[in-house]
Amino acid sequence: LVRLRQRLSRSQGGLGKGLLALLSRDRLDDDTWEEIEDTLLTADIGVAPTQALVERLRERLRVEGGQSPDPRTVLREELISLVGTDMDRRVQVTGTDGNPGVVLVVGVNGAGKTTTVGKIARILVAEDLTVTLGAADTFRAAAVDQLATWGERVGVEVVRGPEGGDPASVAFDAVKHGVEHGVDTVLVDTAGRLQNKAGLMDELGKVKRVIEKQAPVTEVLLVLDATTGQNGLIQARVFSEIVDVTGIVLTKLDGSAKGGIVVQVQRELGVPVKLVGLGEGADDMAPFDAAAFVDALLG
Ligand code: GDP
């Protein structure tokens, strides 16, 4: 939590501070409200959510009978409610009926899939769960090697196929290995070439189908780079059309001043942000929590 606060407050460029300074002005005139709106838009909160938030703030901060409410409290409450407190953000890492949990990790190249798989594996191992990694991003030899390095670092088995081999067959082997060894969780890294939507759809569809011959997929995590803004959001939408995404991992929040993207992506895709990436290191991942996130934004 401390790390979340440090990393976010460093990168958010004082979104919270800027907003609070504006909201604390003696007179909240139309110009000030416009500045508040611009600040929220710059943080990628999105047009409709920004308008709704400003309306709520205007309503609640109206000075009545000399009693002005504390802007920080009001802003905090409204931001938390915008980010959402009623979503189930647990990652389903274990299976039922003696099956391993199967977590499929999808997203465009460079979003941080492989790193996310490594970081999740590390957390699970620390919780005494057994883990197998499936290197189904067979199109990039580097991706397979990178996953193998994570496997060594974290101390878990990595199932890999021949370079350029069939991703579905690697996914199948990884889950088979997990089933046969009574492993708790199989994490499957996938390829993310978005140039060819039909091809990707075929590939991910096949990966999911062959896995489910052995064990149900318990979670499909879409990895999204927070620094890519609207473009990332469009790509995310394509993935959510291809597979039933159950949760979002928002990476590189440490390098982005656009934490507001959390609000937009949840709205666009209708699934919660479950984890956030806060750096390249093995421990730079945190479960997403609305109140902690807003507190980090507000500094
Ligand atoms: P993939 O192609 O989706 O598998 O992406 P990778 O896992 O290879 O990550 C791409 C680059 O982003 C690598 O250099 C990672 O170290 C970096 N990266 C991944 N997650 C984060 C994060 O949360 N913060 C930062 N700063 N870098 C990250």
Automatic annotation (TrEMBL):
Asked if the keyword Transcription belongs to this entry, the reply reads no
Which compartments is it annotated to reside in?
Cell membrane; Cytoplasm
Q: State if Acyltransferase is listed as a keyword.
A: no
Primary enzyme class: hydrolase
The record gives the membrane topology as: Peripheral membrane protein
Q: Domain SRP54-type proteins GTP-binding, which positions?
A: 272-285
Instruction: Cite the binding residues for GTP.
Output: 107-114, 189-193, 251-254
List its EC numbers. 3.6.5.4
Q: Which UniProt keywords apply?
A: Cell membrane, Cytoplasm, GTP-binding, Hydrolase, Membrane, Nucleotide-binding, Receptor, Transmembrane, Transmembrane helix
Reactions catalysed according to its record: GTP + H2O = GDP + phosphate + H(+)
The UniProt family comment states:
Belongs to the GTP-binding SRP family. FtsY subfamily.
Tell me the subunit arrangement: Part of the signal recognition particle protein translocation system, which is composed of SRP and FtsY.
What exactly does this protein do? Involved in targeting and insertion of nascent membrane proteins into the cytoplasmic membrane. Acts as a receptor for the complex formed by the signal recognition particle (SRP) and the ribosome-nascent chain (RNC).
What is the protein's name according to its record? Signal recognition particle receptor FtsY
From which organism does this entry originate?
Nocardioides furvisabuli
Q: Taxonomy-wise, where does this protein's organism fall, top ranks first?
A: Bacteria, Bacillati, Actinomycetota, Actinomycetes, Propionibacteriales
